[in-house]
Design a protein that fits this description.
Layout lengths: L1 H17 L18 H9 L19 H11 L21 H9 L19 H11 L23 H9 L19 H16 L3
Helix pairs in contact: 2-7, 3-4, 5-6
Length: 205
């Protein structure tokens, strides 16, 4: 399943890279000189992210788990899941239902346990690393593990993914030798990470 998933993602990523360039919508809250403006343009042009309404992108808002599943579903080419994941907190017919079902079936996420996915929960840095790592095919880190000062705060299930994300140049530390695994990811940060993932990880395979 993982091999088939990776092949499908590579094909979808290639299609994204060949899409006709386009400018992002002129979001009233994204300054042209903002450090994330180019990434917002990229994600908008590739159909990965859109605004939050009323001409706004909400760059400082937290990326939630439903949004993350939806973006990665689009990166993979929006495949159809064969069955519902059975999460009790994913509403049937919701805009993110198909993406979550796909993510569970593809092994991107198994939820929290107890039948919960937590669609409205903010995405932590370690969760983002794990989702991207699984989508990339769960590769081994290229470099030795980084001895983060806050390594004890990284959940055991996420440590290999965090090491991979750092070695692949997807996620770096936050200063002081810290990774801040439980910190929330904003939509601006996520846009930058999605662009780097598509251009550097998936396109390089």
């Amino acid at each position: 399943m993982k091999r088939r998933l990776t092949a499908a993602v590579l094909s979808a990523a290639a299609a994204l890279s060949l899409a006709a360039p386009a400018c992002a919508a002129d979001f009233s809250d994204v300054a042209p000189v903002a450090w994330y403006a180019q990434a917002v343009d990229y994600c908008q042009a590739q159909g990965l992210m859109s605004g939050t309404g009323e001409g706004r992108f909400s760059p400082g808002a937290a990326m939630d788990r439903a949004m993350l599943a939806a973006v990665l579903h689009r990166v993979a080419g929006s495949p159809q899941a064969s069955e519902a994941a059975g999460f009790t907190d994913v509403n049937p017919g919701s805009w993110y239902e198909q993406a979550v079902n796909w993510a569970a079936e593809a092994g991107i996420t198994s939820g929290y346990g107890g039948g919960r996915f937590g669609p409205g929960d903010p995405v932590t840095r370690e969760q983002l690393a794990v989702f991207l790592w699984h989508l990339a095919g769960s590769p081994a880190p290229e470099d030795p593990a980084q001895p983060w000062a806050d390594l004890g705060d990284v959940s055991p299930y996420a440590r290999q993914a965090v090491d991979w994300a750092r070695s692949a140049g997807i996620l770096s530390g936050v200063g002081g030798g810290r990774f801040a695994p439980q910190a929330h990811t904003t939509r601006a940060q996520a846009a930058v990470l999605f662009q780097g993932f598509c251009e550097n990880v998936m396109a390089g395979k």
